[in-house]
Amino acid sequence: MSRRAPTLEDVAREAGVSRATVSRVVNGVRNVDPQIQDVVRRAIARTGYAPNRAARALVTRRAETVALVVCGAGDASDTPQDTFAARVFADPFFGRVVGGVVGFLRPRSLHPVLMFAETADDREEVLTYLRQGRADGALVVSAHADDPLPALLADARLPAVLFARPSRPVPLSYVDLAHRDGGRLAAQHLLARGRTRPATICGPLDVPASQERLAGFRDTLARHGHAFVPVAEGGFTLDSGAAAMSDLLARYPDLDGVFAANDLMAQGACQVLRDRGRRVPEDVAVVGFDDSSVAVTCRPQLTTVRQPVEEMAAAMAAVLDEHVRGARTEPTSVVFDPELVIRDSA
Amino acid sequence: MSRRAPTLEDVAREAGVSRATVSRVVNGVRNVDPQIQDVVRRAIARTGYAPNRAARALVTRRAETVALVVCGAGDASDTPQDTFAARVFADPFFGRVVGGVVGFLRPRSLHPVLMFAETADDREEVLTYLRQGRADGALVVSAHADDPLPALLADARLPAVLFARPSRPVPLSYVDLAHRDGGRLAAQHLLARGRTRPATICGPLDVPASQERLAGFRDTLARHGHAFVPVAEGGFTLDSGAAAMSDLLARYPDLDGVFAANDLMAQGACQVLRDRGRRVPEDVAVVGFDDSSVAVTCRPQLTTVRQPVEEMAAAMAAVLDEHVRGARTEPTSVVFDPELVIRDSA
DNA sequence: TCCCGGGAGTAGAGCGCTCTCCCGGGACGG
DNA sequence: CCGTCCCGGGAGAGCGCTCTACTCCCGGGA
């Protein structure tokens, strides 16, 4: 096949200097005569030299790689057609996370390693991967707030940053959204639209984010005289949103406003409402959450609470970078503010 | 911080054997007394040893990593809100690719590095990444068939496998679909449903896959007496599908069947049809392509030509693995058959 | 004239692993 | 009984890089 790749040694010989001098030029260390720099650079170009990263990593103890870990429930079993990874990306949310992370990493010539962790074995593998020094740290996005991975990472003293605050305290940095404020924005908007019988499709209640969104929504309505608010729990999927909407309609046929805890469920709700002959927003106003791509794809387009996922993901990467470089040692939290995006559904 | 990680040496001392013996146990090489194996394994557990991959990679010249590269147009400029990566994952297609790739890699304890290549610099970086030995090969998914990356990879003799046949021949393996057969299936189904004035929303015509789907559709209709078939070109996005549908309706108001070259465009078409008061499938039957998640999300659910993306992606990974291991040296092609999935839209 | 400081470059010791080569000893055949 | 083979295990040479010494040389001050 192709012969051995050129090494520092080869370049040094070609340029007539020592290995160390070439290394200095490659790594941009000063104390090298500009003329010699030029000679070396030409030699590098001529030989087509690319520094071997394994060798560099061996001595610097840095992989210059981060792991992007998506943790899941591991409840459903995989088939070739329907893998965990595919299910994850069915929610446009993760695409945005990847986009944000890459947005931060790419200018630094870094690239994430994608890992999916459903089972205990998978989680162990993530730990091993980091311990082997194949990645310098992990960005962790969990479907459930009580995922055991964060605690494992913290125990192993491996650098990691979480998306969303874990349900039980863990000494790791995290990036989150002020979910309660998001719920408040939704409530205020429905009230401003003159809705008098609002209801909500909340997310899984074992997820703190769902609880907070619900709490913010309820509290705000309570402050305006709505002591009781109908609630149906969904699972952040289209189908669960549709089911929850059916449930709400059956119990409270006269409702005129719905806040769904994410856009996918809002879309499901819209479909059910339309099937039952309710016009959106005239008969029932619908507010979503996330401002994901389905908010625009959906008909009518969704009024929704925007979560700046890309910025949040980028912040995650930035904080991890600080941890890895040792510029930050204590865990921090970065909390972003939600924003109401008004479209057609409310 | 944490003290030095344990090395082979440490384990060897702990177990009272030599470094080489521990290495043998770790790598599962035979010729080691079972009793000693046990001693070593216990020592590994006690020390919490994890082999340093950089060191191993240095000598084996294997990174045990593959790059998953997504090539894009690089036409639109990125904003923090709307990155290339986010745009890529807006199409559920890529989620399925990732799912398929991971499905193959995970049982082998491998994990893909995600790379996005829009600009010439990005492509150069992919090459450098591979040349540095950070990944053993690349799985390339291009938005456009004339992307220059495959040729660059082939020239550099770097192991790579493509998703879809490139528009100009390149000595690389690829995995593809019998797109022409897919177009045929769509045409046959519309005919079977008694449609007499079929039209099509094709994909970008610089993409061979689009051409083939269109050709298969047209040829089959021609064989049944339809000499002329109205065509509007789309860009595989929801909006472009909607625009193409409007266009077709304006030109051929009496059409009663539409074949869209992917599900996203089919969804856009359905929305426009509904807005114009046409019932789907009663007035206009719609057939999509891909069988992606939107096929099920869409109302009505889409009848569509299934592309087994997960299996195709897994096959890509499998072929790359053979190339990397040296089990295969000549480029091959693996072509999958499409399958009609009948739901509600036609 | 000598010495000393510092910039430019070299020599070489590892980083942690794999793998070839070698050695000792037990089984076996002549 | 000795030579041969094989098998379990050890010693040690790298893999390609970084980085800490150290050397060399030149200029300036005493």
Automatic annotation (TrEMBL), chains A, B:
**PROSITE patterns in the record:** HTH_CROC1 (PS50943), HTH_LACI_1 (PS00356), HTH_LACI_2 (PS50932)
User: Which parts of the sequence belong to the HTH cro/C1-type domain?
Assistant: 7-35
- Ranges for the HTH lacI-type domain? 6-60
Keywords assigned: DNA-binding, Transcription, Transcription regulation
User: What is the superkingdom listed in this entry's lineage?
Assistant: Bacteria
Q: Which InterPro entries match?
A: Cro/C1-type_HTH, HTH_LacI, LacI/GalR-like_sensor, Lambda_DNA-bd_dom_sf, Peripla_BP_I
One short Pfam family name for this protein?
Answer: LacI
User: Could you state a single Gene Ontology molecular function term?
Assistant: DNA-binding transcription factor activity
Protein name per the record: LacI family transcriptional regulator
Where does this protein come from, organism-wise?
Streptomyces mangrovisoli
